[in-house]
Specification:
alpha+beta, Rossmann fold, 4 domains, nine-stranded mixed β-sheet, six-stranded mixed β-sheet, 21 helices, 23 strands, 38% helix, 19% strand, elongated, cytoplasm, unfolded protein binding, ATP hydrolysis activity, Chaperone protein HtpG, HATPase_C_sf
């Protein structure tokens, strides 16, 4: 039974993207052809892979190729392939909707963008593929038949919000896309895309490296010879044989000296569907026990789905130049999920599956080499191309730091390429190597504090003594920072030390000796108050003690060495993970008038009913000072208002 022809609406997000394409906010319109040819190449890859895996698939693989045909009279350009093709459902899914994570985020950012240049960047970041056709065409017709199926599909749209879809009789295997081109407009960079020379130039520039032949009619064809009077009518001229217009040399198989930066950039755009060039190219050629070639790229900006659960990751896997799979997760770890490119292995089976790859020793060894090479490349950016490194870290640093938890084998290499905010310079991040070089004589620890913002950390009471003595503190505000600092103990034999946990003693041995007697007297003087406060606040604190880290604040709250930080506790609770109540330590500044006054009052009036309320206020102020949440804000306000009233 033949499926009827229907008129359907584009998904709302797709409609908005189509309008962007139609109104041509992207200046380089030549790239529409790269997108169509890239899609055709993918379809050929998928067909060859499908026939390897399903020997019974009824598909013609005798002459897989891409063909481009121009018709100046009709003002059309057609790109066709004899690849995998699409079913009706796939056409609706792949073209009528945007089946890509990050769509909502893309459109939100696009609405926020006020200028065309920023909009172009966003489109490049998102990657619009097929939709690019509407930059140059006012109508697009697609005819396709999936390999192994009998009925073809015809899709057509002017990009105005609806499309028609119906059966296509006698459709050949594969897909053809015919663009009904807009009038030429040089001022708007809209060239004559029916010109064979122009089309060849675009193919050579963007798609020369594709491993499939891209064919076109010869540029010049012999003129038909008129028959002389009395002679028989000449035979009609045969259709000229098509020419292959790309070199078909896999870029990763060519020596580096043969490949230009422009060719690398175009290949990156092909594998990443990004419209902007890469930040850095990474090449690896392994020979010996097992052979493989890798051509990888560090993008110049993060994809919008970098931190989305449903994102795709990984590089393309080839075996002996045969495409095996996209997004091969086994080749790069999760924290390097932004890396794009190709790995071509010589000794794997063509029928390799994801399950086999997870156990394959060769793949694991390739992965180790790739990770080391990528990290070494970033390290070289850090020293040789600081601007590129700064771009890399701002785009991908949060993801890379995940490797401090998941990849202990490369932890030191990851720490070497990390950059952090610190109190040394508000405008420039620091590496750990630079931090260690600036450490004071005798300093044994790399000090840090985690929190929600730089401002909150800089104003934290925990910073007071370190700031007073000129110690540099790392300012860690990324959520991942809360996690890795508990797993990573040291860098370059210097221990990491949270200034909000455990005891922080900044005095030198000489200073300790000089103040030892005074401290013992102070501790003895405050012992009754500390004991009373520990009992009074036992519902919320595990201990009250004197502090060495405070200079101006009356009190602060610190954790034991192995306690969860308040931020990490919040994160776990937000994820629905049950946690027992975590009591922390209240530290008092013995030189603050509020604390000395409380000690005097407790000594002189131990039964005063207002003293427990003062203790509660002191604890609440310390909690607020570190950005914590009060358990009962209304009670705090009531107590504070009562005290203020008595001062008037």
């Amino acid at each position: 039974m033949t499926t009827p022809t229907e008129t359907l609406e584009f998904q709302s997000e797709a409609r908005q993207l189509l309008q962007l394409m139609i109104h041509s906010i992207y200046s380089n319109k030549d790239t529409f052809l790269r997108e169509l040819v890239s899609n055709a190449s993918d379809a050929l890859d998928k067909l060859r892979l499908a026939t390897y895996r399903d020997k019974d698939l009824d598909a013609d693989t005798g002459d897989l190729h891409i063909e481009i045909e121009t018709d100046p009279a009709a003002r059309t350009l057609t790109v066709r392939d004899n690849g995998i093709g699409m079913s009706r459902e796939e056409v609706v899914t792949l073209i009528g909707t945007i089946a890509k994570s990050g769509t909502a985020e893309f459109l939100r950012k696009l609405k926020e963008s006020q200028d065309a240049a920023a909009s172009q960047d966003l489109i490049g970041q998102f990657g619009v593929g097929f939709y690019a056709s509407f930059m140059v065409a006012d109508q697009v017709t697609l005819v396709t038949r999936k390999a192994g199926e009998t009925e073809g599909v015809r899709w057509e749209s002017a990009g105005e919000g609806t499309y028609t879809i119906g059966p296509a009789e006698d459709a050949p295997q594969g897909t053809s896309v015919t663009l009904h081109l807009k009038p030429e407009d040089a001022e708007d960079n809209l060239f004559d895309y029916t010109s064979p020379a122009k089309v060849r130039e675009i193919v050579k520039r963007y798609s020369d490296f594709l491993t499939w032949p891209i064919r076109m009619a010869p540029l010049s064809t012999p003129e038909p010879v008129e028959a002389a009077e009395g002679e028989a009518e000449a035979e009609p001229a045969a259709k000229p044989e098509l020419e292959t217009v790309n070199s078909m040399k896999a870029l990763w198989a060519r020596s580096q000296s043969e490949v230009t930066e422009e060719e690398y950039a175009e290949f990156y755009k092909h594998v990443s569907h990004d419209w902007s060039g890469p930040l850095e190219t990474v090449r690896l050629n392994a020979e010996g026990t097992f052979e493989y070639q890798a051509l990888l790229f560090i993008p110049s900006r993060a994809p919008m789905d970098l931190f989305m659960r449903e994102r795709k990751r990984g590089v393309q896997l080839y075996v002996k130049r045969v495409f095996i799979m996209d997004d091969c997760e086994e080749l790069v770890p999760e924290y390097l999920r932004f890396i794009k490119g190709v790995v071509d292995a010589a000794d794997l089976s063509l029928n390799v599956s994801r399950e086999i790859l997870q156990q394959d020793r060769q793949i694991q060894l390739i992965r180790k080499r790739l990770v080391k090479k990528i990290l070494a490349t970033v390290k070289s950016l850090q020293s040789d191309k600081p601007e590129s490194y700064t771009t890399f870290w701002s785009e991908f640093g949060k993801a890379v730091k995940e490797g401090l938890l998941s990849d202990p084998d490369n932890r030191n290499a990851i720490l070497e390429i990390c950059a952090f905010d610190s109190t040394h310079d508000a405008d420039k991040q620091t590496s750990l190597r630079e931090y260690v070089a600036r450490m004071k004589d005798g300093q044994q620890h790399i000090y840090y504090l985690t929190g929600e913002s730089r401002q909150a950390i800089e104003n934290s009471p925990h910073m007071e003594a370190l700031a007073a003595k000129g110690y540099e503190v790392l300012i860690l505000t990324d959520p991942i920072d809360e996690m890795w600092v508990d797993s990573v103990t040291d860098f370059d034999e210097k221990q990491f030390q949270s200034i909000a946990k455990g005891q922080v003693d900044l005095d030198t041995e000489e200073e300790k000796k000089a103040t030892e007697a005074a401290r013992e007297i102070q501790q003895k003087d405050y012992e009754p108050l500390l004991t009373w406060l520990t009992t009074t606040l036992e519902a919320t604190v595990k201990e009250v003690r004197l502090s060495t880290r405070l200079t101006t604040s009356p009190a602060c709250i610190v954790g034991d060495t192995y306690d969860l930080t308040p931020n990490l506790e919040k994160m776990y609770r937000a994820m629905g993970q049950p946690l027992p109540p975590i009591k922390r330590i209240l530290e008092l500044n013995p030189d603050h008038p509020l604390v000395t006054g409380l000690r005097t009052a407790h000594t002189e009036r131990p039964e005063d009913e207002s003293l427990p309320e003062t203790a509660e206020l002191l604890y609440s102020m310390a909690l607020l000072a570190e950005g914590g949440d009060l358990p009962d804000p209304s009670r705090f306000i009531k107590l504070l208002a009562t005290r203020l009233e008595k001062t008037l």
